[in-house]
């Protein structure tokens, strides 16, 4: 390892490429371990490709997540404390849910509100 001081007084470190690559590998491994721990602790989940593909294809996110969770529409409506017809209108795109409604739906589906954004 070598240090260089710039004209502005900043100290830079020069590493052999192998050491630099080893640092990158260690950082990648640490991040992967964190993700694994979050999944194991229930703070995160793996999302199946089928769900991702449906979302990318433009399907309604509420409907996709509801289906993924194995919930009937009436069950989700009840859990989110909204009417089944209102949920149907949101899933069909006839209505946008209010922010408070979408928060309730996200909570009922155990997803982040961002996961329901289209």
From TrEMBL:
This is HTH cro/C1-type domain-containing protein. It comes from the Bacteria. Pfam families: HTH_3 (PF01381). InterPro entries: Cro/C1-type_HTH (IPR001387), Lambda_DNA-bd_dom_sf (IPR010982). SMART domains: HTH_XRE. It comes from Rhizobium meliloti (strain 1021) (Ensifer meliloti). Coiled coil: none annotated. Residues 62-116 form the HTH cro/C1-type domain. GO terms for molecular function: DNA binding.
